[in-house]
């Protein structure tokens, strides 16, 4: 018995030993069965990596001594070991795009078992890379994604039609790729997903019939394809077979309603997603949309749709997204239950009807949109108050009501249940916030846009609870307070945009080096009463506006501010000279405005890398000459007026500043002649060299200033793009301004700056004659050549300047007669020809006789109205008895004469003054400040 037990014990021990030995041998044994990629395919992938030019080391795991099936972005078949997938979409976790400087190698042809090819996250920097034709020979491909930044150009190879198993083809964003035919789609019977967004299809006139022959197509994206209009047979317009189509994107093609509606409304009931934005859709929204009950997404924004919001949307019970922004919709905003009650009480999550002409009030029923996450009614004509029921929208994340006519009080009742709210924009209404200081909002806002909404006079205490916002606008909020210290430490993510301009803020600013977003920031505290020295700023890419405050001291604190792209500290009390650091930080400026301070010294030198487009140093005490370093700047606006600059205007000015729109060197100590190169400034619209010591003649080549020779302008403002903070949708433009001497008063023009076209050379030492060429500048609205030594006659064709509102030629040595064409200046509001040597009759016209005599005084040879001295031959015989002709009747002074005189006065007066009184556009179009 003991022997039996001992034997069994030995057996158990032996089994355990064998088990241990087996477990030790198992990993090496399993290793022999690990997937090993096929050598020729590994070599092909290594060649692909080499040709791709992986300078950034994105494919660092692709080593020749390792199994390629373990490389990142590679998948193999578990049984055959063939490479079946090349997927670059998730190569790394750090970057969206992976940059390569090579090309796509045809070595991939060795991967004949490849069924998945995704190169969507690579960006090829090399130029003129042809679309790879060899892809059409990888016959087992089911999935192709070459979208985004791949960088191909040229024609799509027809060989793609060989891929009979293809189910997914994405070429979206291929803006340099085209095709003249889509016939290669006919053989792709398995294709379910097709994205050709960005591909130029302008030559494919049969694009719709071609697509209709792809029977399995479920998703179709043709955005920005330059699609031609569809020509359908009137007898058989509905023969397009899209029986499987569920998603349709035809956005940004500018197609007419006929090209879309004529076939789209005959699609099967499976269609759920339709994007028709940025086309040329006109008229009202067709009722036929109610025949698509499966619709869950409809975008018709950026069209020309008119009329009201139709009742049909109430039948679309599955609709979740409705975007009708940027159209011409009018009428009252829908009231419940008339139009949209059924819709709103069901699925709707996203509603955007911004930028239309809707009026009326926001209904109380708005609180029934229980599923709503996004609501944008901005830029309409809505009036009334904000219903308190808005506070019931517990799922709402975005609320935009910007730029309407809404008013009333915003209290905690409107906010108490908006726990998911992230973005709030109530700007440019007449809301008044009255929130209890103890109220703790349930939300954490990321964007706070409340411009023109009354918050004050105290700084809003409710902000103290917000810690996630990166941009905030409380401009024109009637805050009369200091900015509390706690505010600067609120944001846990850092501020990227702050606008508290046009309030009554006072006090000093703290050290801001750690308060703002680490990469980009826009700070606007202009038009307040802030004082002290300029604050220390973080080393970010900055746009800073502290204008119209009471800051004093020097510019030294800006030396550590990093890259300042837009700086405006005009209208302050700043003193001193440019610090040495400006030679370095100055190269980052796009706009620089230091006007109306007490700064002195010379203008700072700019490095060879100059991005400066606008420089305004007006009304300081800068001295010296125009620096050579400024010649490398691509300026559009330069205003150095009212300084102490000396020397001559450099000859290079016209060649290097050919894009200049505004040139003001007014009121300095400049001398010498006007260089002829100034005529190379074809974009110039405002030229002000007045109040200097410039001599010589007016260049005859002024007719080359082609912008002044055009009566209209394509834009109203001079704008410069600003940074988009932290990738959000918020984007601002900097609209430039210019000070122009107009009718004896300095006026600032901004919103209509592009409409103002003026030449002011007054109060210099100019000689010679007024060149006839100046009369070709038919866009001029103001011409001032007064107080010079200009001789000769007034150009006979001066009447061609028919937009002139201001003409001053006084204080010169002009002679001869006043040209008859001057009477054609029907818009003229100010005329001064005084103190010259003009003679002859003042031409008769409603305009010229309406001016005061002071416009002509100092010209002893002038005669006729409104002058008191009559012209020779115009003497009127007032007393016939003294002439001896007692029996002759005065046939000139008749009843008809007096009637004509009266009518002439009435029509003359009201033709001029009445036009100015009632024709508002005449008064303000060109000179709206």
UniProtKB/TrEMBL annotation:
It holds the Pfam family LRR_14. Residues 1-31 form the signal peptide. It is found in: Cell membrane. One of its GO terms (cellular component) is plasma membrane. InterPro entries: Leu-rich_rpt, Leu-rich_rpt_typical-subtyp, LRR_dom_sf, LRR_N_plant-typ, LRR_R13L4/SHOC2-like, RLP23-like. GO terms for biological process: defense response; response to other organism. The chain crosses the membrane at residues 897-918. Residues 39-77 form the Leucine-rich repeat-containing N-terminal plant-type domain. Keywords: Cell membrane, Glycoprotein, Leucine-rich repeat, Membrane, Repeat, Signal, Transmembrane, Transmembrane helix. Residues 107-328 form the Disease resistance R13L4/SHOC-2-like LRR domain. It is a single-pass type I membrane protein. Gene3D superfamilies: Ribonuclease Inhibitor. PANTHER family: LRR RECEPTOR-LIKE KINASE, LRR RECEPTOR-LIKE SERINE_THREONINE-PROTEIN KINASE FLS2. Belongs to the RLP family. This is Leucine-rich repeat-containing N-terminal plant-type domain-containing protein. It comes from Buddleja alternifolia.
């Amino acid at each position: 018995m003991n022997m039996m037990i001992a034997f069994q014990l030995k057996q158990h021990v032996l089994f355990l030993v064998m088990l241990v030995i087996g477990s030790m041998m198992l990993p090496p044994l399993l290793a022999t069965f690990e997937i090993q990629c096929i050598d020729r395919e590994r070599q092909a992938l290594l060649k692909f990596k080499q040709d791709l030019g992986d300078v950034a080391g994105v494919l660092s795991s692709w080593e020749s001594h390792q199994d390629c099936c373990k490389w990142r972005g590679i998948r193999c078949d578990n049984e055959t070991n063939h490479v079946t997938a090349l997927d670059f979409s998730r190569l790394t976790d750090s970057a969206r795009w992976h940059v390569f400087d090579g090309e796509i190698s045809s070595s991939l042809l060795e991967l004949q078992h490849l069924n998945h090819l995704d190169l969507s996250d690579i960006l090829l920097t090399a130029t003129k890379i042809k679309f790879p034709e060899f892809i059409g020979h990888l016959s087992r491909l089911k999935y192709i994604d070459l979208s985004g930044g791949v960088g191909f150009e040229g024609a799509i190879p027809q060989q793609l039609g060989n891929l009979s198993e293809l189910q997914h083809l994405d070429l979206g964003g291929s803006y340099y790729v085209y095709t003249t035919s889509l016939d290669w789609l006919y053989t792709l019977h398995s294709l379910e997903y097709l994205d050709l967004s960005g591909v130029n299809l302008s030559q494919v006139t049969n694009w719709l019939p071609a697509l209709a022959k792809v029977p399995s197509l479920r998703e179709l994206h043709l955005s920005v394809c330059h699609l031609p209009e569809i020509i359908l047979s009137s007898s058989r317009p509905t023969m397009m077979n899209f029986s499987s189509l569920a998603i349709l994107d035809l956005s940004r093609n500018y197609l007419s309603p006929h090209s879309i509606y004529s076939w789209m409304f005959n699609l099967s009931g499976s269609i759920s997603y339709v994007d028709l934005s940025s086309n040329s859709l006109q008229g009202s929204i067709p009722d036929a949309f109610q025949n698509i009950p499966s619709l869950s997404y409809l975008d018709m924004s950026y069209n020309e749709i008119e009329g009201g919001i139709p009742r049909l949307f109430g039948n679309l019970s599955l609709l979740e997204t409705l975007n009708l922004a940027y159209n011409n919709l009018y009428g009252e905003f829908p009231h419940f239950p008339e139009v949209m009650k059924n819709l709103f009480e069901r699925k709707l999550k996203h509603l955007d009807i911004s930028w239309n002409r809707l009026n009326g009030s926001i209904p109380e029923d708005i609180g029934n949109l229980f599923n709503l996450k996004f609501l944008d009614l901005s830029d309409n004509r809505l009036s009334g108050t904000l219903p308190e029921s808005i506070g019931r929208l517990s799922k709402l994340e975005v609320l935009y009501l910007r730029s309407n006519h809404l008013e009333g009080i915003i209290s905690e009742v409107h906010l108490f249940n908006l726990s998911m709210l992230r973005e709030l924009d109530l700007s440019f209404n007449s809301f008044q916030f009255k929130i209890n200081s103890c109220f703790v909002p349930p939300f954490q806002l990321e964007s706070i846009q409340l411009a023109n909404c009354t918050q004050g006079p105290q700084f809003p205490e409710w902000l103290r609870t917000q810690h996630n916002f990166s941009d905030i606008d409380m401009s024109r909020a009637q805050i009369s307070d200091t900015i509390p210290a706690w505010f600067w430490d609120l944001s846990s993510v850092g501020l990227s945009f702050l606008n508290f301009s046009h309030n009554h803020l006072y006090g000093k600013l703290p050290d801001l080096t750690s308060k703002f977003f680490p990469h980009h920031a826009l700070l606007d505290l202009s038009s307040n009463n802030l004082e002290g020295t300029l604050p220390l700023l973080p080393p970010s890419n900055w746009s800073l506006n502290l204008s119209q405050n009471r800051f004093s001291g020097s510019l030294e604190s800006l030396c550590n501010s990093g890259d300042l792209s837009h700086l405006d500290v005009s209208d302050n009390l700043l003193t001193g000279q440019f610090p040495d650091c400006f030679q370095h930080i100055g190269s980052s400026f796009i706009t620089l405005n230091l006007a109306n301070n007490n700064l002195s010294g010379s203008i700072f030198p700019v490095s060879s890398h100059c991005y400066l487009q606008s420089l305004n140093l007006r009304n300081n005490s800068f001295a010296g000459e125009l620096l050579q370093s400024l010649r490398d700047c691509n300026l559009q606006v330069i205003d150095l007026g009212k300084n102490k600059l000396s020397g001559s205007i450099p000859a290079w000015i016209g060649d290097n500043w050919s894009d200049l729109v505004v040139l003001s060197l007014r009121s300095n100590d400049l001398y010498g002649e006007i260089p002829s190169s100034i005529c190379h400034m074809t974009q110039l619209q405002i030229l002000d060299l007045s109040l200097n010591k410039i001599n010589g003649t007016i260049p005859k080549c002024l007719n080359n200033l082609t912008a002044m020779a055009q009566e209209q302008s394509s834009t109203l403002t001079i704008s410069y793009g600003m940074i988009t903070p932290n990738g959000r949708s918020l984007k601002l433009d900097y609209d430039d301004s210019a000070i122009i001497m107009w009718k004896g008063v300095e006026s600032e023009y901004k919103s209509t700056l592009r409409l103002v076209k003026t030449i002011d050379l007054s109060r210099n030492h100019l000689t010679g004659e007024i060149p006839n060429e100046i009369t070709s500048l038919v866009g001029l609205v103001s011409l001032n050549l007064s107080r010079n030594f200009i001789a000769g006659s007034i150009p006979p064709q001066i009447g061609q300047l028919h937009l002139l509102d201001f003409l001053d030629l006084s204080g010169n040595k002009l002679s001869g007669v006043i040209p008859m064409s001057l009477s054609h200046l029907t818009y003229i509001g100010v005329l001064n020809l005084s103190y010259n040597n003009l003679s002859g009759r003042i031409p008769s016209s409603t305009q010229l006789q309406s001016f005061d005599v002071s416009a002509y005084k100092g010209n002893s040879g002038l005669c006729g109205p409104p002058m008191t001295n009559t012209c020779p031959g115009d003497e009127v015989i007032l007393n016939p008895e003294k002439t001896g002709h007692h029996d002759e009747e005065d046939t000139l002074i008749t009843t008809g004469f007096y009637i004509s005189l009266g009518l002439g006065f009435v029509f003359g007066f009201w033709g001029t003054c009445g036009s100015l009184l009632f024709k508002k556009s005449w008064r303000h179009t060109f000179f709206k400040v």
